[in-house]
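User: Quick sanity check before I run a bigger batch. Here is a single chain. Can you write out its predicted 3D structure?
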Amino acid sequence: MTSAPAGPLTIRVRLGLALALALAPVLMMGVIQAAVAFHHDSEERRAVLTSAAERAAAEARAHIDSAVIMLQTIAPATVGLDCAPRLAEVMSRSAGFSNLIRFDRDARVACAAASVPADPRRSGQPWFRRLAAGEKTVIEGHQYSTSAQGPAISALVRAEDAQHSFDGALVAIIRLDSLRPTTDRSLPAGSQVALTDSRGAWLAGGLGLA
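Assistant: Done. Predicted structure follows.
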């Protein structure tokens, strides 16, 4: 018995190989173009996210700076019997604050717009010691604040007497959600940023951007 001739099959194989060789440059070009497009898309998204993070940081910084200026402005009025009503009035007119507090030079609560948890170790806290040592302002983050009932930022300002000696501190407790950036429609859905201080220490996270 003789086998079937291999001529037609050989022609088909050769035609297939010739077609594959002819299309190879086209296929390779398609792969290269896809890789370039993916890289371009990644770079563009990175630029968008970086720009959004910078805007979010600027908004948060501006909010915190305004709180510091406000504390410095009202400092002279935070003495005497009118202290607590004065702080309560300011807080009612300032969105984002969960408490405004005046501590005396021994870290005791002199007055506050809302209740303040007792803390016998307050005078030994790093922020209080830094203010007592001469720093004008301190910013601290809290993953949970009793006053804010959640994450918060504390803006702390040194208080001084008529002789410019340390006389305690004024504190604004700022709710983290009040620092949430405004909606940016150029961002992918669900984008978030974390908030850190100037030294890179973690203050808080989960600030929704979009």
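Strands lie at 97-103, 109-112, 137-145, 150-160, 166-175, 192-196, 202-208.

User: Great, the batch can go ahead then.
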